[in-house]
Amino acid sequence: MKNLETIIQICKQRGFIFQSAEIYGGLKGFYDYGYLGVLLKNNLKNLWLKSIVFSRDNIFLIESSIVGPRKVYEASGHIEGFQDPLVECKNCHQRFRSDHLMKGEYGEVKLKDNKPLCPLCGGELTEERQFNLMFKTYVGPVEELATEAYLRPETAQGMFCNFKNVLNSMRTKLPFGIAQIGKAFRNEITPRNFIFRIREFEQMELEFFIDPKEAEKWYKYWVEERYGWYLKLGFKKENIRKREYLREELAHYSAATTDIEYKFPWGFDELEGIANRTNYDLSRHSHFSGEELVYFDEKTKKKILPYVIEPSVGVERLLLAVLVEFYDEDIIEGERRRIFRFPPFLAPIKVAVFPLLGNKKKLVDKAKEVYQIVKKDFISFYDESGSIGRRYRRQDEIGTPFCLTIDFQTLEDETVTIRDRDSTKQERIKIEEISEYLKSVFSNND
Ligand code: ATP
To answer: Which atom from ligand 1 is nearest to the alpha carbon of 259?
Structure first.
């Protein structure tokens, strides 16, 4: 089993992920992202955009506001329904989601008089109460119902509220989609498993509007499309699976849902959900706003209230899956090596450039010259400190696929060594050919 603790430690040490407000003791369920974390997240978001939006001509991006008026969430059902059952230990005051508690997710639960006890200290638990997961705020200086607003718990409502704007401005026809990447906030009762369940996260969501008659076809299409995307990213088939919900598991708005699950260190768990949300959202927003959110079919001269298929994935949850999937350890020259085997198109830093010796001016000057060349096309890193072996190891640990080393031969024939992260093999390549060579490696095939 891959050790989550080791991955968390590397993430902090090497600048992927930090606990938010750490110098003040941190805030549970909130994380900050260092240079490598931001680069990796950006790569994931760009791959999603390419696959969902830019490779098609009927899906359009939007960016809607994070704060929304109460009315939006009355219409969506979140004020009434976005609740988790909560219990608290009377002794240690730890809070638990009672549904997760009973599934044993916090550890073994003992019973007393048929009632569960705290899995941490064995204390008595309070009666269950419903807890709304949305963060509430007020817009302007007066705190009253009319100024009540919420941080969005999903980006989806922004797409439903803009249904007409996008339909009219893009002059599009059914089927069409609205996609968005953006922050979402949930006041989760028990954030856990590093960045798996957090309180501030980013979602990548698509709302794909369709004729209700074609709901089954498009639902199946998107389940396969999204599953295939993970295989293309390089996830092993045995680590990724589809799980269709039973009827009793479905959310109130959904006619069918399939989760794509990843084999996290604690077992298979949800990575992405693909739901047939029916016409629930459009009909509710039509009703609450008084705006008719329908599609006029020119052929039949009839109004259609579209159904919607929604694939939705959290960027940080995906980031964690990627870190787990590609982390590896091996032995190189008798030394244990930690390595992220990211496919080249995913790696945060693409190339590192080193002078063989950091104290030889001629080598340093030449290495900086090569660095300036590769930096134009690829996110690169220059390093002249420490032994060459240690510099290679540092790059392996952050998943850099290639290292270029400038040595004495470079000064004679304008060639450098290029070292492959996975095999550690080195070859010589002409400086003028580096860019073309790397471009061919980094272009991915989707
Ligand atoms: P869960 O059952 O894990 O709480 P959910 O079914 O409520 O998740 P959705 O509302 O379907 O999740 O959200 C879609 C996606 O957003 C999830 O598949 C996940 O990738 C991501 N997501 C949801 N909640 C969180 C969270 N608290 N932290 C990180 N990512 C999240």
So the answer is: 18
Position 106 scores a pLDDT of: 87
For ligand 1, atom 16, which residue shows the shortest CA distance?
Answer: 314
Pocket test for ligand 1, best of 270, 308, 316 (most atoms within 8 A of CB): 270
**Six-digit token string for 133:** 């997961």
Separation CA 403–CA 393 (nearest Å): 11
Q: CA 410 → CA 357, 359, 367, distances in Å?
A: 13, 16, 9
Sheet holding 176-185, edge to edge: 59-61, 176-185, 200-210, 307-314, 267-276, 256-264, 240-244
Sequence-distant (6+) residues with CB within 8 A of 373 are 431, 434, 435
Q: So what's the pLDDT on residue 93?
A: 80
Both structure tokens of 42: 């950006």
Dist. CA 333 → ligand 1 center (Å)? 43
CA of 15: how far to CAs of 38, 190, 320, 344, in Å? Answer: 9, 25, 14, 19
In the reported structure, the alpha carbon of residue 183 is separated from the centroid of ligand 1 by a whole-number distance in angstroms of 12
* Residue the block writes with tokens 């092993």: 236
- Find the residues whose C-beta lies inside 6 A of ligand 1: 154, 186, 188, 197-198, 201, 203, 270-273, 312-314, 316-317
Give helix 315-326 / helix 4-14 axis angle, nearest 10°. Answer: 110
Pocket test for ligand 1, best of 48, 78, 200, 201 (most atoms within 8 A of CB): 201
User: Nearest-CA neighbor of 122 among 134, 107, 132, 137?
Assistant: 107
Least confident of 88-102, 266-280, 317-331, 346-360: 88-102
Q: How confident is the model at residue 187 (pLDDT cuts 50, 70, 90)?
A: very high
Asked if pLDDT for residue 2 goes beyond 70, the answer is no
Give residue 115 CA to ligand 1 midpoint distance, Å. Answer: 29
Residue whose pair of structure tokens reads 């048929």 in the numeric block = 114
Residue 298's φ and ψ, nearest 5 degrees, are: -60, -35
Q: Does residue 446 register a pLDDT over 80? A: no
Cis peptide before 175 (omega within 30 of 0): yes
What spacing in Å lies between the alpha carbon of 189 and ligand 1's midpoint?
Answer: 13
Q: Give nearest CA residue, ligand 1 atom 24.
A: 197
Closest CA to 48 of 310, 230, 308, 236: 230
- Spell out the domains of the chain, with CATH numbers in brackets: 4-82+135-323 (3.30.930.10), 83-132 (no CATH), 341-445 (3.40.50.800)
CA 179 / ligand 1 centre spacing (Å): 17
